[in-house]
Amino acid sequence: MASIMQKAFTVVQTLLCHAACASIVLYTLPDFGIRPMLQPSLSALTTIVEQIARTGDPRDVMGNIVQRLRELMQVDVCSLYLCTPDHQHLILAATEGLSANAVGKAKLKLDEGLVGHIAASLSTLNLGDAPTDDRFVFIPETHEMPYHRFLGVPLLHLRKLIGVLVIQGRERDPFPQEAEAFLITIASQLAGTLSQLQSQGGWYEKRSPRDGYRRFTGLKGAPGLGLGKLWLVRPHLSLDQIDAACSADHDAEKAAITAAIIAVTEELESGSGHLGQHLPGDLNALFSVYQMMLQSPELSQQILARIDAGDNAPWALKQTISAMAEQFRQADDPYLRARAEDICNIGQRVLNQLLSSERPSIEAPDEALILAGELISIADLAEFPLHQIHGIICTQGSVLSHTAILANALGIPAVMGVEQFTPEHHRGANVIADGHRGECVLNPPAPLLAEYRRMIDEEQRFMQELERLRDQPAVTTDGFLVNLLTNTGLLADATPGLQRGAEGVGLYRSEIPFMIHDSFPTEQEQFGLYHKVLKAYAPRPVNMRTLDIGGDKQLPYFDISESNPYLGWRGIRFTLDNAQLLISQIRAMLRADVDNGNLRLLVPMVSRVDEMQSFRRYVEKAVDALNRDGHPVRMPEIGMMIEVPSAMLLLPRLAPYVDFVSIGSNDLTQYLLAVDRNNPRVSNLFDHLHPAVLVALEQIHQQCEALHLPVSLCGEMASDPAAVLLLTAMGYSTLSLSAYNIPRIKLLLRSVSRESLQPLLEQTRQCNSETEIRALIAPLLETVGWSQDKRPGLLAKGAETAP
Ligand code: PEP
Ligand code: MG
């Protein structure tokens, strides 16, 4: 039995993950003894899940689920009851077998009838003659009289009851044990999807002409309000993922590949499109090598010959590129061998073009866009002119995914993890990305649209007003001065930091340029980039962090596939193992510092003393070597990030090797709480105000004071007003945050006294949960005009008037 359920579980889970997968091996589940003893097959399950994936309207999806389940289990009735938003009632949300008129009408209290009993007791009920049970309540709208056999299971998602799933039959004996176990398994697998549908609302209302208007809830990725046309961003398929496929329409395939090659050639001619703005100028040399390769007759001829032989264009491209890359790899000459990588890069670009008719051309009309997709990569963002991106909606990812962090830095409103949203069904629709509330609004009706426009205007005016604070210090009313530095990564976002009064760069995420590159940038390319950043901020300090890839930060050209990437090859672990990369990065940074003098090096993901010892040695050697070569570089200050609990516990032993400490509260929270920062399922458990995180932060501050180590904090916590108040009370006097948030946090700090925060900190020391802590701080934030949802008071008020 256990193994049967295990198989069912695995199979359904796989299907839920790969609903659109075309080739699923058919697998027959065992006979459940259900009349008329037909076996439910996996193909039927597949269909249920495919329906889930394809259908947009929650009512249709729920209807499909009960219909397919009834067929699959060969029962007379399958019904789904869902809790109302106030959690007071259960409503029949979909049924196959009971009267369709009862859908949306049949309503039970949470402890009423058999269904209510299941909800109240959170347990399964399997009866042979339901109408004779004391708890049975007849609901006239359903016409359910002839059914005796009754099996119901509760639907629970993330510890919360969302409804009850019921099957019924005419027989007078309970359902067999296997059916019970199967329904429990199905219920647990469907609960997540049903919970999303439930949270969309509208499933128990009559269809109305306003059907196009919907709200979807996600996570607050980056604050702000954006309005624009939905632009679907599809994930790039990599050349490796292309499978053999044929096409009979040779002419169409040839036309498509030729057009793609021409488009990439033109893109290269114009300096790699929008990406070019963010990349060092010397990349142009690489572009001309690419252009030469693209225009070589062999490439086109080989692809076209394969298409003539029956291959479709992507498959013909993949084979040609692989064959050519292999030829280069065999060459004796190292220069020619290195071209293998270039030819693969070209192939990838042509493939992107071939598959991405959705993507705007460089001449795309200058229209406000909301980019929506599963996860929008940094490279995706770089394909659009910044002024065109008014918002980002990701169906996956969390507040701390790097897309959200970049959106924050660039001041683009972002909503993450909107799992129930299917952007592919709404291309071109009007959509609002409300990063304050973590919500997206599809096809808002005219009055709501007008209200959002008003709020966007108001917010812009508010930001302009904040500009007057640019040159004012972030000082509390009783004179405690906080240095507000900025987090940055793209050259393009140096300007917002300076415009918003950043007093330096607290965190330069050097991996971001690596992520929008086509291959590892050379030392010279890096030098050009770092020099621009250091120069833009000089004489203000710039903490340049060495490459921190791994986790959710992957390089398109260097695959690190690990089953547990956050505990794997990340940050300093990766760079120490790939010392050539680390050395060229350190050298580029040191050289870039020569005429600026404001570089400080920062090391990510430190968890051991020997990592800092080795790092320091690499820097000393690089300084010596460069000095010998005539570069007048100096030994910069070296800092380490505290992100891993072991670094915090070993602080006194690490202190001899570091000049300053910067706390990465995103990772520190993740590793202290064992909560994946990027997993929407546990995002409710991720909070930097968790009491354990606060204890850790107080300890770090005290230890750093005792060790005379300057300490700052650069995670997203520094943008959270409640957290900023507590950090100020603890004594943190340097914070690094996204440029967008600097004026707001400055305004906040200038409106409180540090003394008034001390009793608040004392009270939070007694709290057992982040909810209690937030509740304690909320009244103070309200009094200084800061609403719960990070919005300045006037905007929060405006939002309440929205229908
Ligand atoms: C952090 O972990 O808090 C941090 C600033 O680093 P990143 O978000 O880039 O991992
Ligand atoms: Mg980190």
TrEMBL record:
Pfam families: GAF, PEP-utilisers_N, PEP-utilizers, PEP-utilizers_C. SUPFAM superfamilies: Enzyme I of the PEP:sugar phosphotransferase system HPr-binding (sub)domain (SSF47831), GAF domain-like (SSF55781), Phosphoenolpyruvate/pyruvate domain (SSF51621), Phosphohistidine domain (SSF52009). This is phosphoenolpyruvate--protein phosphotransferase. It comes from Marinobacterium halophilum. Residues 57-207 form the GAF domain. One of its GO terms (molecular function) is metal ion binding. Its EC number is 2.7.3.9. PANTHER family: PHOSPHOENOLPYRUVATE-DEPENDENT PHOSPHOTRANSFERASE SYSTEM (PTHR46244:SF1), PHOSPHOENOLPYRUVATE-PROTEIN PHOSPHOTRANSFERASE (PTHR46244).
